[in-house]
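Q: What would this chain look like folded?
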Amino acid sequence: MSIGATVGEEEPSEELPEDVSEESEETTEESEETTEESEETVEESEDAEDASESALPINDDSPAINHDMISYVNSLQTTWTAGVNNRFRGAAISHIKGLCGVLPGGPKLPENRALKYVSKMVDIPDAFDSREQWGDICPSTKDVRDQGACGSCWAFGAVEAMTDRICIASKGAQQPYLAAEDLVSCTFSRILLFLFVVCDSDAFFFRTGCIFTCGQGCQGGYPSAAWDYWNTVGIVTGGDYGSKQGCYPYQVPACDHHVVGKLPPCGDIQNTPKCTKTCQNNATFSQDKHFGSSSYSVPSDVSSIQTEIMTNGPVEAAFTVYEDFVSYKSGVYQHVSGQELGGHAIKILGWGTDNGTDYWWVANSWNADWGDSGFFKIRRGTDECGIEDGVVAGAPKL
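A: My prediction, written as structure tokens:
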């Protein structure tokens, strides 16, 4: 109604121009879009808040199994599924950190640069699994070992791959089961024995580098040095704890943290067992030694790693473990939540693609009560958690 209009008098209607009407409608639509964007921002903010809550600062006494983190990971619906692994039911974060036994730094092996050229000339399949390729003649390719309550992953990743490679190179004729215990206990004792004897002998260090740099037994070690030790000192045979297999079986019991199970509960990370250099199968320690003829690092490009595996067998690699990895159950792992716990060594045995995501097939050493019956897949081609950046391997002396 206009100021001068009389009550009861009909005021003539004024029609808005078409362009003004269209502008009004556009403004309304923009307002609705802004509201939707605002709601999405709130949702994203809530998701970010959930993520931050799942990655709150932790201490060593925090539970290894974080149910909030498991729920968060699964809510993202990425490439993998999280869940409760019996291996760590009731364990603390300190235990996981103790198992991650790859020490920072360490010696460097020469790079096998020829792989970069060879990989361009070979036909690399879309999928490859050492268990399928050689499993019938080399059953060790299917094994999942157990490092127990000891930070000996660096030794396990090495002897697992070495064991496979001896069998593969000999076409199944030689199947020694190399002892992780030799690397864990006897390289540690050599450090103490020769600490003052060879400290000024650079040439001696170069020839037997592991004497000073293999590591600290159950408190961690260097994958590259384990392969050098294979070449220079040799490794005896030995099966799992209590197996009576080979010369020098593993001295740390396999374990689980859950109360009801086939294995005893895990305790604190153990001290390194004493090296006895005595075979339980009546062989002599020196005669039971198996040697490598070469050891080297593998270039970090995917095709070089693939070529090395499909030609010579599984390799050892190291990567960074985060909290969420502890709860891996299936799918292709990629880090999405949680803090860094340490460096861990494993055996890469193949590759493939799962629902469009490229992955590496990996054997862990946390027994079959963890992950996908002891194995896991991890994203390939992106150096996920550094998995492609520290691959080492070698050839056996048959």
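The longest strand covers residues 340-354.
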